[in-house]
Design brief:
This protein has 125 residues and is an alpha/beta fold. It has two helices and eight strands; from the N terminus they run E-H-E-E-E-E-H-E-E-E. The chain is globular. This is VOC family protein.
């Protein structure tokens, strides 16, 4: 029917929480700490749409390589204006790749990364 959410495990909960809420502007739906698992769980939304479950666990392994590691390659966000979003993120201190054009759709996009080096794409719709 549709994708319900994407789960991300972070290495530093407070850093990633700040990144996803203050830098990217996602809204907090619910935040819990599960003592038995020593794990934070943060449910995040874009507007009213639940999209990301952010987890922390003790000592998670690092991502093997970027971006061709087996598993999730990148997370893509739809934006109305790629130039504006790129400038906003650069102003907030992120390193952003140059804007490229999708050879199949002629749409603009660029990549940056989250605090754990998960590649994030911003794609103009």
């Amino acid at each position: 029917m549709k994708i319900h959410h994407i789960a991300i495990i972070c290495s530093n909960y407070e850093v990633s929480k700040k990144f996803y809420t203050e830098v990217l502007g996602l809204n907090i739906i619910r935040e819990v700490y599960r003592e038995e698992r020593q794990s934070h769980k943060l449910d995040l939304a874009i507007g009213e749409h639940y999209v990301i479950e952010l987890f922390s666990f003790p000592n998670p392994p690092e991502r093997p390589s970027r971006p061709e590691a087996c598993g999730l390659r990148h997370l893509a966000f739809a934006v109305e204006n790629v130039e504006e979003k790129r400038n906003e993120l650069i102003h907030k201190g992120l390193v952003c790749e140059e804007i490229r054009i999708d050879e199949f759709t002629d749409r603009k996009f660029f990549f940056t990364q989250d605090p754990d080096k998960l590649p994030l794409e911003f794609y103009e719709i």
